[in-house]
Design brief:
167 residues; 2 domains; mainly alpha; 70% helix
Length: 167
């Protein structure tokens, strides 16, 4: 006695296209076999155990192919991450201590400009000008954070102008 699995129990992520394909195959089989094969009227629309087994095998093959595609995608993503990590390591290794000194020499004008501007804006005369505005003075008579913020913005703007038009 063979055990039959109802087709409703076979679900499990079959796409619409696959479902239409299976329906088409079943219709072709039902139309070609007809009632002459000795199946009773109650089983005319039911697939045979061999057909069910074939559909199960097809679904398993589709799932295996999907799993292989996912594994390949994961391998490609991992290889790309490894390549990026290797690129970063190469950049770190290529920027040794000699390169840092070369960069300092190349940027010496910019560095000296920033140092000069910071010294210039931190002298007592500039602080006294800002202390003349009550908004920039705290309770103890010193400059507050608004004054420091203003000085840093002015230093940044002056540096931009010098770098763009003079250096």
């Amino acid at each position: 006695m063979s055990q039959e699995t109802p087709i409703g129990n076979l679900g499990g992520g079959i796409s619409d296209e696959d479902s239409r394909l299976v329906d088409s195959i079943l219709n072709d089989i039902n139309n070609s076999s007809g009632p002459s094969q000795g199946q009773g009227g109650s089983q005319q629309g039911q697939p045979s155990p061999e057909q069910i087994k074939m559909m199960q095998q097809q679904q398993m093959m589709r799932q295996q192919a999907l799993a292989q595609q996912q594994a390949m995608a994961q391998q490609q993503a991992l290889a790309q991450q490894q390549a990026q990590a290797q690129q970063k390591m190469n950049m770190i290794q290529s920027s040794g201590s000699g390169d840092i000194m070369e960069n300092v020499k190349l940027e010496a004008k910019n560095i000296m400009t920033v140092v000069f501007l910071c010294i210039l804006f931190n002298i007592e005369q500039v602080d006294n000008i800002l202390k003349g505005v009550s908004m920039f003075v705290n309770e103890s008579g010193g400059l507050n954070m608004q004054a420091v913020f203003l000085k840093s913005i002015v230093i940044g703007l002056i540096f931009y102008v010098i770098k763009t038009y003079l250096l």
